[in-house]
Fold this sequence. Notes:
The protein is of the alpha/beta class. The chain contains 12 helices and 12 strands.
Amino acid sequence: MKIAVLPGDGIGPEVTGEAIAVLESLALPGLTLFQGDVGGVAYKRHGHPLPEETLAMARAADAVLFGAVGDPSCDALERHLRPEQAILGLRKHLGLFANLRPARVFAGLEHLSPLRADIATGLDLLIVRELTGDVYFGAKGQRVTDTGEREGWDAMSYAEGEVRRIAHVAFRAAAAAGLPLTSVDKANVLETSQLWRDVVVEVAAEYPGVALDHMYVDNAAMQVVSHPDRFGVVLTGNLFGDILSDLASAAVGSIGLLPSASLGERQTAYGTFGLFEPIHGSAPDIAGQGKANPMATILSAAMMLRHSFGLEAEAARIENAVALALGDGVLGGDLGGSHGTAAIGEAVRERL
Ligand code: IPM
Ligand code: MG
């Protein structure tokens, strides 16, 4: 079971370090870890945020555990050399089109949410975000118009095949969990969204047991913080999913708690090849201080055991240990607590 660990920038090395320690404490036989450079740190060492050898290591692995990328000192670089291109490149090159971002308020931890407790209680949803298309990967550029004005532009598009395959992922997840499915778009304004909606309706015919509704993204943002209990599985595109998943994480209480899985079609001997990462970024302001909450990365490692290695019981053990630690008041600075990275990692391992 080969895992490529790509810690990346900022707090990435700290949080992946704790996740690795959790994995190692499970003493799973046959687990081998490889480490590679990615992001700003890779640019500084190799001249590229996603060096060939890192991509090759990821391809050769059964799963990738990813920290974070982003480094303010790289902001002035040409776009293709910026740290963010590493994660976008990995997603694209590895065909990881399906991003699963579960967000739930842990029972008894409603007080961590900035939402009123009676509202927060109902927050338990899965965002299924398309990850390799949309305005993220369309043509883009800057130009000077006829009037001499500078103009920036990014093309948004989805091909029906791209919508269909992510819709199937969301419908299968909703069917398996017995949950309703909400497809989020902006079909009142965007043609891309109109096609999205049409294709989702076509796919829905194959899942008669799943209750489907459609919602505009602005309304969805409002509903996530006012009536989160109305959501089960949320299916959406790359850009809207990026925004809604940060919103959902803030509603849970902290972005430091939310894991994610990015999956494609490739099957390995153990499960589905995937990349697993916290949804937070590199947090340069607190990097290297031992303050970052590693829980999102630890929970990402749990998702990896579940999806890429078929180790459901071990995944649940990690998730329970995190929930217990939170319940016992093991809170990072992101949640108003005073536990540092190492203390949180240790608290989780004690509760395994
Ligand atoms: C995320 C991040 C990335 C994204 C950035 C780092 C490119 O915000 O994973 O949500 O926009 O997808
Ligand atoms: Mg994001």
